[in-house]
Amino acid sequence: MKLLVINGGYRKGKTIDALVEKLIEGAKQNPDILVESIRLVEKDIKYCANCMVCRNDDPSKEVAVCPIDDDMKEIYQSIQDADAFVFASPINMGTVTAVMKTFLERTCWTLAKPGTKPIKGCPEPRTTKDKKAVVILSSGVVPPILRTFCDDATSLIKSCCQTSFGAKVIGSIYAGAVEKKGLDHYSQKAHELGKRLAKV
């Protein structure tokens, strides 16, 4: 089983990295798990040009052609090979980091094709594989009780999983107010979520 971690954090060794490490530790309870981690900020990922070459490509392809020449080409291959995903990002201004948003935009029509629901033309996954995903988010100040008011990231990632990655989100962690509460409360949750994600 191949687990692909998409890390949208900017700073090494901080909250997102610590929780991802705990999740991977839990996932590796399954000896057959293979983990690949991609730190988006270390990759050359250009902005989507809205050229629509990908959207208009052959719908039978699992990954559509994108004319932009950057590191997304190798990332698309990793996405194809994955059975499960971890999407991890700090909450910045109520949503995912800019680099995660750029990445998600680049996957929309390369991994999706025009479908019929809820209306004709909306994206649906090109892949026919059954995949799963989890979401890890962190906020330094805002506590979980106020998550509803400042977390647009979870809904964005869930929507992308449904329409592009063909993955069912089976759980999420919102590590809120970590500057005050610390990480201990969330670390065990991440470990357990990793174990759940790695179950066949």
Structure, described:
The longest helix has 14 residues. This protein has 7 helices and 7 strands; from the N terminus they run βαβαβαβββααβαα. It has one domain: Flavodoxin domain (Rossmann fold), CATH 3.40.50.360. The chain has 200 residues and is α/β, with parallel strands linked by helices. The N and C termini lie close together (8 Å). The protein is globular, with a radius of gyration of 16 Å. The chain is 36% helix and 21% strand.
Compose a concise summary of this entry.
The chain is an alpha/beta fold.
Strand content: 15-25%
Please provide the count of β strands.
7
Structural class: alpha/beta
Note the total helix count. 7
Write down the CATH class.
Answer: Alpha Beta
Mean pLDDT: 96
CATH superfamily: Flavodoxin domain
Q: What is the N-to-C succession of helices and strands?
A: EHEHEHEEEHHEHH
Shape field: globular
Biggest β-sheet: strands ordered side by side in the sheet: 2-1-3-6-7
At CATH level 2, the architecture is 3-Layer(aba) Sandwich
Topology, element by element:
Layout: E1 2-7, H1 15-27, E2 34-39, H2 72-81, E3 84-90, H3 98-111, E4 112-114, E5 123-125, E6 131-138, H4 147-150, H5 153-165, E7 167-175, H6 178-181, H7 184-197
Parallel strand pairs: 1-2, 1-3, 3-6, 6-7
Antiparallel strand pairs: 4-5
Helix pairs in contact: 1-7, 3-5
